[in-house]
């Protein structure tokens, strides 16, 4: 019984993480579309090359 409960909780966490990932991907897609309004594709590619350390410090507000 404990194993079933544990498996259920793990599955619930996976579902929540997938929802969160989908939301994050939607935010990224929206950001990319907004960037396309102001920058060329080459400029966007350069922008995405920013050091990952800097990107990790960015907080997205929903």
Task: Summarize the structure in words.
The model has no long low-confidence stretch (mean pLDDT 82). The chain has helices spanning 2-38, 41-48, 52-56. The protein has 62 residues and is mostly helical. The radius of gyration is 18 Å and the shape is rod-shaped. The chain has one domain (2-56). It is built from 3 helices and no strands. The termini are far apart. The longest helix has 37 residues, at 2-38.
Question: What is the secondary structure topology, with strand pairs?
Answer:
Elements: H1 2-38, H2 41-48, H3 52-56
Describe what is shown at a glance.
The chain has 62 residues and is mainly α. It is built from 3 helices and no strands.
User: What's the mean pLDDT score?
Assistant: 82
Order of helices and strands: HHH
Low-confidence stretches: none
Give the overall shape, derived from the CA principal axes: rod-shaped
Strand content is under 5%
Oligomeric state as shown: single chain
List keywords for this structure.
mainly alpha; 81% helix
